């Protein structure tokens, strides 16, 4: 009888522990496979390389995050034209399905 209670208590304790771990690991973001993560990292790298190669953009002013082919651009540039151009360049990168342009414009950063 005591062994049965001990086994039941251990099973409940382990179940509760694993459930807690599962919920703690769930941050609400969609999960990606290793392949998807690697693919998104490759797309992000290609976007940043395109920014570096483009004379109209400063790659240091724009951050890029890619998730499931959706590229999110953040940062601050000097003109709306620069922000729009960054989105256009991003759309031209293979693997980009959608662009979320969250770049802010601050005229004080205008290089000209």
Task: Write the topology of this structure.
Elements: H1 2-25, H2 34-53, E1 62-67, E2 70-77, H3 80-91, E3 98-105
Give the gist of this structure.
The protein has a domain of 76 residues: 2-Layer Sandwich (Histidine-containing Protein, Chain: A), CATH 3.30.1340. Helix content is 50%, strand content 20%. The chain is built from 3 helices and 3 strands, in the order H-H-E-E-H-E.
Structure in words:
- It comes from Achromobacter denitrificans (Alcaligenes denitrificans).
- Keywords: Signal.
- This is BON domain-containing protein.
- It holds the Pfam family BON.
- This protein is α+β, with helices and mostly antiparallel strands and 112 residues long.
- The protein has helices spanning 2-25, 34-53, 80-91; strands at residues 62-67, 70-77, 98-105.
- The protein has a domain at 32-107: 2-Layer Sandwich (Histidine-containing Protein, Chain: A).
- The protein has three helices and three strands; from the N terminus they run ααββαβ.
- The chain has a three-stranded mixed sheet.
- The longest helix is centred in the first third of the chain and has 24 residues, at 2-25.
- It is elongated, with a radius of gyration of 23 Å.
- Mean pLDDT is 80; it is low at 16-24.
